[in-house]
Amino acid sequence: MRPLIGIPCRAAFRSNHPEKPVYYSNKSYVQAVESAGGVPVLIPMMKDLENLHALLARLDGLLLSGGIDVHPSSYQEEVDAALSETDPELDKLELVLARWAWQEDIPTLGICRGMQLINVSLGGTLYQDLETGYQDGLQHANWSLPRNQLIHSVSIDPNSQMRQVLGVDKVMVNSLHHQAVKELGKGVLASGKAEDGIVELLEVPGRTFMLATQCHPEELYRDNPVWLHLFRSLVKACEKKLSATIPTAMSASA
Ligand SMILES: NCCCC(=O)O
Questions:
Q1: Is 112 annotated in the active site?
Q2: CATH number for 139
Q3: How much distance in Å is there from the Cα of 87 to the middle of ligand 1?
């Protein structure tokens, strides 16, 4: 059976139909999950947490995607820098998802905002705006370049799970973010850093597969098999979980 991998959506208003708000996710996340053999399931925001839990019970994995800023109230800080768009409902939804994934050991891949979210869900903090909060760093926000443009390298911790999954010590990445991990959350390992010290890869040891990237591998996997391998590893971890739960479910219904 193919694993179901949930991808949370965000809400938006289309300028030509402001009366009809929509939920959406970037196509590239859906395509990356499908290319790796998983079945993408878009998760809308729901009023009733019980509905969300009913959906979660049927998912085998999670992809926490990139997107808008995480509001600093999620890590008990005041706004002290240039935030871009935030959405308290999205923060709430994704924090529930990240904590659920941690508690239930659900295979999870975090990308960009998703990586920041995982860190915050475990008590970590963020640079609210790298340009003002980390002034001597590289240029991490490159909005005018193609989304798959490689910008800087990332050195990978040789003892990390990320090193095992990617199979390389160093990798070139795209860079499309203005927030970043500051203090690591409880039990979180920085498994890769840029030359300027910014955390670019992280993982949660003790969980089967809770890995995250600050870069956007969904824009890179077609050109570099290292990133396809990351998505395939997520799918494999989900398949393993699924095959471990199927016999239990079948014997329970017998
Ligand atoms: N907060 C950075 C957003 C980058 C992106 O997903 O396009």
A1: yes
A2: 3.40.50.880
A3: 14
Q: Is 215 a catalytic residue?
A: no
| Ligand 1 centroid to residue 68 C-alpha, Å | 6
Instruction: Identify the active-site residue in 200, 203, 218, 239.
Output: 218
Atom of ligand 1 nearest to the CA of 26: 6
User: Residue 23's closest CA among 31, 15, 14, 32?
Assistant: 14
Per-residue pLDDT tens digits for 164-186 = 999 999 999 999 999 999 999 99
- Say how many domains are in the chain: 1
Of ligand 1's listed atoms, the one at least distance from the Cα of 113 is 1
The SS3 assignment for 177 reads coil
Q: Can you tell me which atom of ligand 1 is nearest the CA of 65?
A: 6
Range of the domain at 242: 4-253
pLDDT tens-digit readout, 96-126: 999 999 999 999 999 999 999 999 999 999 9
- What is the spatial distance between Cα 15 and Cα 239, in angstroms, rounded to a whole number? 40
How buried is residue 138: exposed, middle or buried, by Cβ count under 10 Å (0-12/13-18/19+)?
middle
Using the mean position of ligand 1's atoms as its centre, give its distance from the Cα of residue 69 in Å: 8
Per-residue burial over 197-235, b = 16 or more CB atoms within 10 Å of its CB, e = otherwise: ebbbbbbbeebebbbbbbbbbbbbbeebebbbbbbbbbb
Mutate to test the pocket of ligand 1, among 112, 116, 218 (most ligand atoms within 8 A of CB): 112
- For residues 186 and 126, the answer to whether their CB atoms sit within 8 Å is no
pTM of the model as a whole: 0.94
Pick the residue whose CA is nearest to atom 2 on ligand 1.
177
